[in-house]
Amino acid sequence: MTTVVDDDLWSAVGDPPRRRLDPHLADGGGTAIGLSRQLPVTRQAIAKHLGVLNQVGSVHATPAGRERRYRVDEAQLARTVAQLSSVRAAWDARLRRIEQIAEAIQRSKDTQL
Fold first, then answer.
1. Which of 24-28, 29-33, 97-101 has the highest mean pLDDT?
2. Largest Cα–Cα distance of the chain, in whole Å?
3. Residue 65: phi, psi to the nearest 5?
4. % of the chain exceeding 90 in pLDDT
5. For the domain 7-112, what is the CATH code?
6. 64 bridge partner residues
7. Residue 24's CB: how many other CB atoms inside 10 A?
8. Dihedral over alpha carbons 51, 55, 58, 62 (to 10 degrees)
């Protein structure tokens, strides 16, 4: 099971301050000023993080007066979840294989006693 993982996307969404934006954006989106009122982060920092998320397609910006309103891109979110599921499945398979090897080693040791 091989799935192409978008490193730019994961780098963008993996950043802790950007992850703190997720619940606020999922609740209907917002502007940099509005989000900075809800979080202990400056408007400029929020705008920078939103710009990065916009670049990778996680959010879309639409003009709202002098500001931009950001909303989660649901199609990109679905792709992100699919990638995460694929990575999880690959790691589960690796861990099962390691467990099988460890059990075989243990059985080998038990039969030598």
1. 97-101
2. 78
3. 70, -130
4. 51
5. 1.10.10.10
6. 67
7. 16
8. 60
Is residue 69 over pLDDT 90?
A: yes
State the Cα angle at 24 between 16 and 44, rounded to 5°. 65
Instruction: Give the tens place of pLDDT for each residue, 39-62.
Output: 898 999 999 999 999 999 999 999
Distance CA 45, CA 108 (A): 57
**In this structure, what token pair is assigned to residue 83?**
């990638």
Q: Which residues of 40-62 are buried (b: 16+ CB within 10 A; e: fewer)?
A: ebeeeebbebbebbbebbbbbbe
Q: Please report, for the chain, the start and end positions of each structural domain, with discontinuous segments joined by +.
A: 7-112
Check whether 4 has a pLDDT greater than 70: no
